[in-house]
Design goal:
single chain; 349 residues; Immunoglobulin-like; 2 domains; 5-stranded mixed sheet; 9% helix; elongated
Length: 349
């Protein structure tokens, strides 16, 4: 009996291993020929893809997908050309579903898509210089009916406040509970929306009184960084190259763009502000603001602000972070975490 049981156990084990090896072998039947693929493309390009038939199998047809969207099907091992015009910047993940000899195997690759045109360098003039609270670890900065709203971070000292933009002094604020690290804010329809960093939770306040209305949970596993709006939708950065589009009524993320120049993706998009149809975004650890096309994610221009950073005299000052557009004067107020100054600038187009 023991010999019989040993035989059965060994037989089953051998069959399991054999079946696994067979499936693994099939995965190597086909692969994309990546020898002619470039490291980066633009939306002006077309990319030719060919499959390597490593075991000379008889291919019936191949169905091609880009980012899980079915693009086309070809008979046999026909060439597939992907037109990148209109495709989202960032990675296009290409999958081939190969039908052969009564079986089906998939294989995949990816190509990276950047913006077509290099960003231009914008010039600016300093209109005014104001005091800023050196204790404010600035995360959000926005005007509401000519009143400056500011949010700050760090657990135990996060708040949202109305401030005097000329002095940096707070005249009304609401503190967050100790466990929250406050992040970006924006004001839409007399409501302040505020993010938190890694708590996956946001808050909504009455913009007039700063009284809390409700909280909401993020519907994706992302961090909260910057927040702005176009008058209808909210836009949220998460510390990566992504900017998410949010429905303000449901707080659900409904789309996103990837932020790219003509030759690289821009990681760590931080505080953001909607200005004349574009998203102006601080880039974490950079003394610069990227001007981003909200439809495509392409960086169309850059404001290089290291000269402003040099004027900050607080030795504890950290990164540039704070963009507030003042519509009445068509000027931009910029500051940073623990900066002792806020600069009102005018961009020279």
């Amino acid at each position: 009996m023991k010999v019989y049981n040993l035989f059965i156990t060994t037989f089953l084990a051998l069959n399991i291993v054999g079946c696994g090896d067979s499936q693994k072998d099939k995965e190597g039947f086909f692969s994309f020929d990546e020898s002619n693929l470039k490291s980066m493309y633009t939306t002006n390009d077309k990319v030719d893809f060919t499959l390597l038939n490593n075991n000379n199998k008889n291919i019936d047809s191949v169905v091609y997908y880009a980012n899980n969207e079915r693009i086309t099907a070809v008979k046999g091992n026909g060439k597939f050309t992907l037109d990148l015009n209109g495709k989202k910047l960032g990675y296009q993940r290409i999958k081939a579903l190969v039908h052969f000899e009564g079986d089906t195997i998939s294989t995949s690759t990816r190509v990276e898509v950047a913006a077509v045109i290099a960003p231009k360098l914008l010039k600016y003039t300093i209109v005014n210089t104001y005091d800023h609270d050196v204790n404010a670890f600035t995360q959000g900065y926005e005007f509401y009916k000519d009143t400056l709203i500011e949010s700050t971070g760090r657990e135990g000292s996060s708040y949202v406040a109305k401030t005097d933009y000329k002095t940096g002094k707070i005249f009304k604020k609401t503190d967050l509970n100790q466990q929250y690290f406050g992040e970006g804010i924006t004001v839409l329809n007399d409501k302040i929306y505020q993010l938190t960093w890694q708590n996956a939770e946001g808050f909504i306040y009455d913009a007039k009184t700063l009284k809390p209305i409700k909280s909401f949970q993020y519907d994706k596993k992302i961090e909260g960084w910057g927040l702005t709006n176009d008058g209808k939708y909210l836009y949220q950065s998460d510390g990566t190259e992504k900017i998410w589009k949010m429905d303000p009524e449901t707080q659900k993320l409904i789309d996103h763009v990837n932020v790219y120049t003509n030759d690289s993706k821009i990681k760590s998009v931080n505080e953001i502000e909607w200005i004349n149809g574009k998203i102006y975004g601080n880039i974490w650890q950079k003394d610069a603001i990227a001007v981003i096309n909200p439809q495509t994610g392409a960086v169309e221009a850059v404001l290089e602000l290291s000269a402003l950073r040099a004027k900050v005299t607080n030795p504890e000052a950290e990164v540039l972070n704070g963009i507030a557009y003042r519509k009445s004067t068509n000027t931009i107020f910029v500051t940073g975490k623990n900066w002792n100054k806020t600069f009102e600038i005018k961009v020279n187009q």
